[in-house]
DUF3127 domain-containing protein (Emticicia aquatilis), 89 residues
Amino acid sequence: MNFIGEIKEVFPVVEMTINEEVSKKVEFLLEIESGKFPRSIAVEVWNDKINNPNIVVGNHVLVVANLKARRVKDRFFNNITASKIDLIN
């Protein structure tokens, strides 16, 4: 799925151990234009993608992302994971 918007906030790198391997994750807040009112989504990037030079507050970007949901008991949690982030001029 593609999202176009402005990066409003970038959160610190989070390190975690998954199956005895250290993984790094960065999340950022992307404000997308959606009709009359802007909406924000939290997007995550993992490992080698965390150093993408386009992840800067104020940048207008095109984010290509995968959507995934996981169920915990009777609740669902959605993840939006970017596979590509391109700067828009």
Q: What stands out?
A: The chain has one domain: 2-87. The CA atoms of residues 7 and 57 lie 5 Å apart. The radius of gyration is 14 Å.
